[in-house]
## 1
Amino acid sequence: MLRNRATFGTRFGFYMAAIGSAFGLGTLWRFPYVTGVNGGGAFVLLFVFFSAAIALPVLISELMLGKITRQNILGALSWKPWVTGRRWRWIGRLGVAASFVVLSYYTVVSGWVIHFVVQGIMGRFTDANTNPELVIDKLLTRGGLQILLASVHLIAATSIVARGVQNGIEKSAKIFMPILFVIMIFLLVHSLFLPGAYEALRFLFYPDFSKLTTTAVIQALGHALFTLSLGFGAMIAYGSYLKPEIHLPSEALVVASIDTLLSLCAGMLIFPIVFTAHVDSTTGPALLFKTLPVLFGQLPLGYWVAIAFFVCLYFAALSSSVALFEGLVAYLMDERKMKRASAAYSIATITFLLALVSAFSSSLFKNIKVGERGLLEVIDQGIINWTIPVVTLGIIIFMGVKVPDDMKKEEFVDAKSLITVKLYPTWLATVKYLVPFLLVGLLLLQLGIAIANDL
């Protein structure tokens, strides 16, 4: 018998919370920079393929796992009707560890956004004498300031999560995500009329496979999973808050489709600025912060648009953090029997300590590098390219061998929709065979690359 559990009040609230978990940083911050680093069009094509072939089936699986069990990631992977013993829980523990690490550097990057909100209010981005590259470069050398900004962000995230699902997470997402969508559309239209727009669109959508490396293939898969917050337990937690009558495949399709579309829009927003302002497309994690201020400086109402955009970007970044935060809070509430507020404060404390590493990665720890990559980029790619695929593989195997097929069919098939009846065998085969095969293949490929580089 399932215990009482908080639920999302509306479908719209779930959509905004789920999309917000990816849109703020996974889409606007990370997608353009990994696309730039990996050569553009061919990487984008692979990302779209992996989003449909792997990320969507996994999203359905994670939401389903949460909805059936009403548990966090560890509780779902050791649910007694299916599992005897605790051997599957290592997958959940790895997902929890990954959530802490990603939340810690999300917290630091969200602090960057707060800094840019302040700079926008001061009019720095409409001042012809301001170089946006110097603004972010100077911030990266000031670890103490980054920690201060990260602390402000942690206080905001903690206050939202501590208030609960409907009053905190859902309410904030329903207010700020639509505003960000409107602002993004406005900026996208203007960006597409910049001189570098044609070159940018060709870079994004013309697949030059000569630029595609095996590392790019691995990163395309990792980002497809990352942008939907898969492999962390966040979507399992969100699934546990869905009402029984919610039809999972429909909800997952909406979330995945909008997220993929928004990722492409983010590329079309950022790269015309990149090519117009002659910013290096391989800049890395700071790419967003070196490009958008250039656009704001050219707009008639650039001062107000800059403030509005970075304020809304901050709330989208907050949604990303809240999703990871909530997965961890659900873990402490379910497994450690902690009250929500106590769990939220505990998560915030641990995250703050971990955030010190990312905050000082460009100053105190600036000499710690792997090849040409700094510490923040190494942490990011280690989680995205290794940990998330491993956790996702464990979850998907668990879904295939432990969750009864009749329960999966009951959640997947809508009696009023003939197409779900026809699609169920395809989804089941994808979950049991295709997704594990692709994940294992890409992990082995990545392992081979790592060994070859060592040699």
Note: Residues 418-454 form the longest helix (37 residues).
## 2
Amino acid sequence: MQIDVLTLFPAMFEGPLTESILKRAQEKELLTIRLHDIRGYTNDKHHSVDDTPYGGGGGMVMMPGPLIEAVEAVRGEEEQTPVILLTPQGRVFSQKVAQELAAHPRLILVCGRYEGVDERVRQSVVTDQISIGDYVITGGELAAMILIDAISRLIPGVLGARWAAEEDSHAMGLLEYPHYTRPPVFRDMPVPDVLLSGDHAVIQTWRRREAIRRTWQRRPDLLLTAELTEAERWFLAELAETDAPLPG
């Protein structure tokens, strides 16, 4: 998979893209990430990328010229490649959206800055708009890093264990079950006996129920769309009677 990132600050990506899973994915040639400095597509000696908004108001707006020319140059003849603007106005990013985007062989991420981008950028080259949540950050760079990380985990071969991505929180529609490792007892806190039993079917049932319990306690809204068996629905009904969700 190839991801092209259009940004005013390519140096911001150096740490996240050169460590851990993303580093290994690139070394294994499962993932190619290319950074493009939007200032390289300006036509004036000052390399201007923003200007004051028409109609007044505070802040600066990214001009259409450099952004549109950058997208067109990077995209080339592949007009079917999704061009995603990272913006608070976009659809909210989720695991489902990550799975959708991971199905594409190539993505172009456009990092907005300042008060936003000229509307004509959206009208001419942007095919999708994504927000990472209902809050404001300085620019689209951090949002782009989150998308890259979440999407890359879904590329076959990137994660060591073949089931790791499927059992992550949100991947199965629930929060993930509790994890334990050595020692079996730490400061009088033991590992649940079921995990030491060696019975994988029983362990799997326990993990599934604990995922449901944790979701009920912390994110009960997710249970409205989670796929549950009849037995799991009975278990959830028992939780509703005995275990109140944690306060938001």
Note: The beta strands are 2-7, 32-37, 50-51, 61-62, 83-92, 106-111, 128-131, 185-186, 189-190.
## 3
Amino acid sequence: MNNRKTEEAWNYHNKTKHPGMPTHYLDWANQPIPFKIYTTLDPIEIPTDLPPSNVPALTAISNNVPITSDECIPDLRTLGRLLYLSAGITKKVNYPGGEIHFRAAACTGALYHIDLYIVTRDIEGLEAGVYHFGPHDFSLRTLRKGNFLGVIMSATGEESAITKAPITIITTSTFWRNSWKYQSRAFRHTFWDSGTILANLLAAASAYKIPAKIITGFVDSTINNLLGLDTNREVAVSLVPLGDTEKSIQAKSEEIETISYETMPLSKKEIDYPLIRSIHQASSLTSEEEVKEWRTGTPESTLPEISGRLFPLDYNQDKEIGQISKTLEETILKRGSTRQFAQTSITFKQLSNILYHSTSGIHADFLIPFGSTLNYMYLIVNDVEGIPKGAYFYHHNENALELLKEGDFRGDAGYLGLGQDIPGDASVDVFFLNDLNQVLEKFGNRGYRVAELEAGIIGGKLYLGAYGQGLGASGLTFFDDDVVRFFSPHAEGKSVMFLVALGKSVKSKSSR
């Protein structure tokens, strides 16, 4: 399929809107396991004795470590800390039906369909190779021996951040582990849930002063083949080069041997959702030339002129952050997804801190120049000390909220969030919207991937910014077209990508 035939993205987006998804009953006896477990490969233990960074969470989510002339080569201990803080098991909770292993980052339905793979040169504690990270036993398993970073170099069209990175982490999604509950909508969740993991990974890399960048332009078949994936079930989503070396990697475009290893069955049977495979194929890139052509600057936004009352953000300065923010490690270990909010207020300073530090920019190959964005944040403020209740638009370049309409919209917030109590009870609801026509015109069908992914990454930062200040957060689904209508005329013509509710938790149970 052709990435430029954008009717495929629109077909998927419109068919997976709420309302409109078919009635679905969960077959609990057929629920997939939340891990990819290789049954014939020996584990490589990852050390866990690296001291914590002690960097405040708000600092970690807002700082980006630039690539410099200095070498930065993480060792296995440091790599292990990044893996743990982004995708590790942080707590285990028993319930009548068994035990749930909660992870460092939020995931729709706590189904954990995102896996991490590592491609590395020789580093201290680990030989060059391709590895799978197993959260269930915090180990690596060797898929290939040798240095395959040159293959990634070729597959990304010689992307500059890849050229000197000694390690690249690759995220993948196994569709069935999420579509068991969410059906075809799981393709959206692929990027929401990758995004929350990447938010943690970027924050952890920042805390340990390791350069990192999100790469979404690559030849899909090359990366999938490198990892030995069955692409009817699991696909590569993004690449994250880590660190910096003096010597550039040399590209390698030669054929690589096909690999396949036995894995534990996910469930008794798997149900195929062709719409997922169709949009994935339609948004795939097939050659290095296509990748290079695809990687262009972010389209400039066109927004209505400011006509409502402006409320400049009131955020803490850098020297004050340590006094009001938990460390990144404390935040991630305590983070959950709030299942019940108290109908009470948060302060405007708390909200300002969350918004300001979460939107400081993402180093990504689809956000050029740095600081660009594809998504806009619309808010329903139910109860924030210092500003009126109402609907707002966040002008991130001006660091200010524009009041679109004043009023008590708790009932609307609850309805728009699929009729759930959570968004109605929250202090604030943050909706991510964009001009999907413009995004698809610029990036083709793959634009749908990156628009969802950026929303997921910023949403993940909202989580960390909230929990870092002792608040709660929860990612939610929504009635697509009704959200646009609610925020119109300002939001007219836009499409909804994601929703995050913020506030004070009544109790925290880590599921979403």
Note: The chain has two domains: 7-294, 310-507.
## 4
Amino acid sequence: MQHDFSEGKVSRQIISQAVPLTLAQIVNLMYNIVDRIYLGHLSETDSMALTGVGLIFPIVSLIAAFTSLFGTGGAPLFAIARGAGREERASRLLGHVTSLLTLCSVLLMAVSYLFRRPILFAFGASEASYVYASAYLSIYLIGTPFAMLSTGLNGFINAQGFPRVGMLTTVIGAVINLVLDPLFIFVFGMGVRGAAIATVIGQAVSCLWVLRFLTGKKALIPIRREHLPVRWGMFKEIVALGIVGFIMQATNALTQVACNTTLQRYGGDLYVSVMTVLNSVREIFSMPIHGITSGAQPVLGYNYGAKKPARVREGIRFTTVIGTLYTLLAWLLVIWQARFLVSIFASDAALLEAGPPALRLYFFGFVFQAFQMCGQTVFQSLGDAKHAVFFSLLRKVVIVTPLTFLLPALGLGVNGVFIAEPVSNFLGGMACFITMYLTVYKKKLAQAAP
């Protein structure tokens, strides 16, 4: 395994990180994607079970937001510390993140369970869809500590140069979920509750896998008991950088709430189901670009810490080209196979009619998402939290959320919700990338080059 990212071809190192990470993230989607596929084809519920599962997306995003707050806040700092040869600091970062994820997960689980009814209705539930949403969420929340620890700590495995181990974290849990889903949903007749139980079991196994590795002898820097107590100084460092990932995920939750409530108003439960399908397709096609940028992050951070700006610039170029080509091909595929992609998640005739045109609108200009993600990755990898936070807020809070409310009110109806996404991808993505190119690539790294 390659643990020193300052040697060898940068492109090869990014690929060696990105391929297993991409596979892992795609497989990780199986936790929820498989649930949606099976529930979308339950004949006795039409699309209502799918609607119910879609309503918990904002809660899942909020859990992911707090996972990112500590996980993506600590992992880049960990990679930079390793690159600078500061292993004691790296070990303290890992211990802090472990404790923070544990404490936060228990708090989130309790609050979400106690207030699930008002939360779900605020997120766009109707009396009919609440039954399914509550049944799924009540069980799903039990897996919150497992999900946050396995996802939040997995970045520390990758940052030590073990991407295959990181890949297996999600593969193991997802395969378990894939096997158990039809058993609990159909054989045992448990419906949405069965889907949630299968998901929690998969998350628990993934969590045990991560903890076993990071407390074992194979880890270059394992979790150490003496570094678990949280100190204020390091907590502030982690949160200052992790706020980037937090805002990106939290604004996803905000956007999902805006979409669900607006669609409920203009189209009813049917279009909330459509949005669930659109989110599912977007997650599938976004995973490879997430894998590419996640694979680039430890390589960029390590070389920046090792004071090798030329290699950082090379990594930025490679990530941008690969990301752009991929998202362009994904966009064309969605346009060509829109109906087939919707049919994966639903057999309801009304949903099959409304879904494909909405999907084409929603994915228009998908290529610009690559520029947003590449820019965000560079800022975050180099510890520039301010720019990363600003551009995340710009796209989701300043552009897409207001447009989600405004465009339907101007006469576009449900189509206005779907159009808001590509507009934000173009404006936010280009603003983020151009700023990164001018301030980091052309100025900061060029000046640092020998």
Note: The longest helix spans residues 269-305.
